[in-house]
Amino acid sequence: MSSLVTDTRVVFSRELRPVLRSPFSIVFSMVQPLFFLALFAPLLPEGSSLQWFVPGIIVMSCLFGSSMTGSNLLYEIQTGSHERMLVTPLRRPALLIGRALKEIVPMIAQAAVIVLACLPFGFRLHLTGAVLGLLILAGFCVGLGALSYTLALASKNQEWLFWTVQQTLLFPLLLLAGVLLPIDNGPGWLRLLSQINPMTYVVNAERALFDGDIWSRTTVYGLIAAAGVGLLGLFVGVRAMQRSD
Amino acid sequence: MKTSVEAMMIATRELTKRFKSVTAVDGITLEVADGELVALLGPNGAGKSTTLRMLTTLIPPTGGSAEVAGFDVVAKQREVRRRIGYIGQGNGAGHSQRGRDELISQGRAYGLPVRQARARAGELIESLGLGEVADRTVSSLSGGQRRRLDIAMGLIHAPELLFLDEPSTGLDPQNRANLQEHIVGLRREHGTTIVLTTHYLEEADSIAERVIVIDHGRIIADDTPQRLKAKHVGDRVFLGFGSEADATTAAGLLNGVREGDRVQVSADDGPRMVPGAIEELRTAGVAVHSVEVTRPTLDDVFLTLTGRSLRNEEA
């Protein structure tokens, strides 16, 4: 078991190294969330709009980044790097877990950039809540990353498949989670779809936590949703990686 | 060549791989002893790479068995992986990584402690002449530099057995020669057992001591390049004469074929056969005007064995 940990650490630090070598790349991958923040937030109705909007954008940033991360693996499958890793004694599960865990690092950095950018405009940060929020988000982004890698392994030799699926799922997940507009006033079918979207619970929990409302049912639901996505992602991903050639 | 079972680096028995309806590898039985340098030669799609991928544990066989470095490729995958190096057709280094970082990661993947991995990476960077580019992003390296980096990664744990899949494909002649030098040097200095696949005839001919010719998933010949050529094709000796009459006489004496005033004779060893033939003809009163000996290539061997030329498939 301890060897699986060692192997995972090797994969994790390999994945992280290019990020650490050029930290600015983290900001590049969050251009879209920043645009939403700059160009969409001013359109929100008066009131505590930032307090409501910013946590959703943090989850959005995590969704965009983690769902795309499989493309790195897809590229490594095409070039031969993945094959080279498969021939080493590294345990197969570590090849997936190490990669998925790495998603946490850019997620935290992006959340920090977003929060810092919003503080001057009246966004209030509750530190304990925010830390707990990021912990929940960590589980969610590990799961998303693992699912993205699974998709990459499944679309080996057909890059279009990866992007088609990723792009098709991205906006429904985002809109149905009520990140940009509240779902509460929508028609019944839309609310139903929103209720079966695990991201909805994560977004709600982030809003409550960043606002300092820690010991609520919302937090628990968010935690369950994030842990569920995390475990499902790892389970599916490890299986896919074990079949990888 | 074959001493005992223990000394075998690779031993396969009826190794087979079927993909749905296609049989890519069709019952290959072969043994490679410690320290051999073997080339698997054959056209694209012959089953060379599939064989290599089974031997390196990348894909499981659908039939037969294989032991590599003393361990079964299915039951003892990790034991096999620990002992072999593999340089695939693609580039092993991640494009957004730096060469040195990848080498260290690779060393860590084989269980080297960080410090040792770093030292070993430094050694290989030095010996493969990558000093100037090792700390640059891999995507900025030239094809030849990336290939050298691949070799360095394959050697990070000083494996006793190294597999190379089409190592020189896509390299210019100079880089190809450079690579071949490295491969031969590895064998000479470290006694590494080397198995490579190639569809370049010259490559197989110049560096391998043993060539295994594969076609349609089967071994159709297995010997040193010299013996393959002698056995399956032989040398051709062309003798020129002053007249067709002389040529006719010579063809009769030497058991050759006459074309105009020239005679073609087959021989196992052309250059050794010529002096005797000239002597014999002179005794018979026939003067030889010109001599040309052509030695067969491995392509001639392949042509004789299969009726097809490998050269056409190279293009």
Topology at a glance:
The complex is a heterodimer of chains A (245) and B (315).
Chain A: H1 2-21, H2 24-28, H3 31-39, H4 49-68, H5 70-79, H6 81-87, H7 92-102, H8 104-118, H9 127-154, H10 159-176, H11 188-195, H12 198-210, H13 217-242
Chain B: E1 8-19, E2 22-33, E3 37-41, H1 48-55, E4 63-68, E5 71-72, H2 77-83, E6 84-87, H3 99-109, H4 114-127, H5 143-155, E7 161-165, H6 173-190, E8 193-198, H7 201-207, E9 210-215, E10 218-223, H8 225-232, E11 235-241, H9 244-254, E12 257-259, E13 262-267, H10 270-283, E14 288-294, H11 298-306, H12 310-314
Parallel strand pairs in B: 3-8, 3-9, 6-7, 7-8
Antiparallel strand pairs in B: 1-2, 1-4, 4-5, 9-10, 11-13, 11-14, 12-13
* Spans where pLDDT lies below 50 across 5 or more residues of chain A: none
Helical segment count of chain B: 12
Mean pLDDT of chain A: 93
- Helicity level of chain A, as a percent range? over 70%
Keywords (chain A): Antibiotic resistance, Cell membrane, Membrane, Transmembrane, Transmembrane helix, Transport
Organism (chain A): Actinoplanes palleronii
Membrane topology (chain A): Multi-pass membrane protein
InterPro entries (chain A): ABC2_TM (IPR013525), ABC2_TM_bact-type (IPR047817), ABC_2_transport (IPR000412), Nod_factor_ABC_transporter (IPR051784)
